[in-house]
Design a protein that fits this description.
Length: 345
């Protein structure tokens, strides 16, 4: 790998920075609500609330125009108050079920390729779930277990993940957003949530997304925030689409590498490093790994990790939605995105 500049140190697998050995490779424990006084000004119980349609166990609160899971509101407040972005941080952002896990894996494999060659038998992605490789901002700022200190101590460039809207992380200078055709997002979300809430209907999931009160919704405002920022400042926000990533993974990883300031050199391309990254992060490879067949994703939903890796195709909505459902979603999209320049085919 010919390169004139020194290889960057970060990102390093976040879970490996966990001191408490018995947690390495196991699930994150339930997030404690912060017990400090940072949140006195925002009284969570006074914010507008709704239950997630079909899942009364999940309560949402409207904070700064977005419906966040109630337990994430203190984290959203803390992120805005205490997160100290560095100029070379890379933030991966998305709404749930838009290809986050894949993009996290691709970004980690790309940015860490000097320390961890993607064809290596000891690559972290072979023993860790992609979400264990990089910090999730909401989880970090829910506090406990020294997570904020660990985030601070990470070597640069750091790679972090969030579902927060753009306005809450607008101070970050390099953000990669991935969005997905909304009907496929809804179907993916329904399958995912059903693993823990089998009673959930597709109609409930569709209604919550179309009504705006889904996790980190309204989805149109979430996507538009990043879309507009990517148009206004393309050097700060890279706007990716799941469908495009599926159509041309190598081309999009090349764009990603360029955007984060680590383009693949001709020698790396020649040596097949880009192809190795794509193969390492392919759906078939990730879902075949033991670490991704076991355990749960996180404490909020307690969904099994294997549910992160389902079908991975474009247009699966036709197998599940009635024409009326599809029309409802398309009408909402047409109405909310009219004259914005953001389209879904
Ligand atoms: P489907 O449910 O449509 O199959 P997220 O990571 O944001 O939760 O998104 C999950 C969606 O991304 C799921 O879509 C999942 O199958 C798909 N996915 C996960 N890993 C992938 C990969 N390596 N390549 C392509 N798609 C992937």
């Amino acid at each position: 790998m010919a390169s004139n500049s020194p290889a960057p140190v970060g990102p390093v697998p976040f879970l490996d920075t966990e001191k408490d050995d018995h947690q390495v490779g196991s699930d994150v424990p339930p997030f404690p609500l912060p017990d400090d006084h940072e949140h006195e000004v925002v009284v969570v119980s006074e914010l507008p609330s709704k239950l997630l349609a079909g899942i009364p166990q999940i309560s949402l609160r409207r904070y700064q125009g977005f419906w966040l899971p109630e337990s994430w509101v203190p984290a959203a407040v803390s992120i805005q108050r205490r997160f100290k972005p560095r100029p070379d941080d890379v933030i991966i952002s998305s709404l749930p079920k838009c290809g986050t896990t894949w993009l996290v894996a691709l970004a980690f494999a790309t940015m860490a390729r000097h320390a961890y060659p993607p064809s290596g038998a000891d690559h972290p992605l072979l023993r860790l779930n992609p979400h264990q490789c990089i910090p999730f901002l909401e989880g970090v700022f829910l506090g406990g277990r020294g997570r904020e200190e660990r985030l601070e101590a990470l070597p640069s460039p750091r790679l972090v993940n969030t579902h927060m809207p753009h306005a809450m992380i607008a101070c970050c200078s390099r953000v990669v957003y991935i969005c997905r055709e909304p009907k496929d997002m809804v179907v993916s979300m329904w399958h995912y949530l059903r693993t823990v809430h089998p009673q959930l209907s597709l109609q409930d999931t569709l209604d919550s997304v179309c009504g705006g009160a889904s996790r980190c919704g309204p989805f149109w405002d979430h996507a538009l925030g990043y879309w507009r920022a990517s148009v206004a400042t393309p050097d700060r926000v890279l706007f990716l689409r799941y469908e495009e990533l599926l159509r041309d993974p190598a081309g999009n990883v090349r764009r990603l590498a360029q955007f984060v300031g680590q383009p693949f050199s001709p020698a790396e391309e020649e040596a097949g490093v880009l192809g190795d990254v794509v193969r390492l992060c392919s759906l078939d490879n990730l879902r075949s790994l033991e670490v991704n067949k076991t355990g749960i994703v996180g404490p909020l939903l307690k969904t099994p990790r294997k549910a992160l890796f389902r079908k991975g195709v474009v247009g699966d909505w036709v197998n599940h939605m009635t024409p009326e459902m599809a029309r409802l979603m398309d009408d909402v999209v047409a109405h909310k995105l009219r004259d914005t320049g953001l389209h879904f085919k």
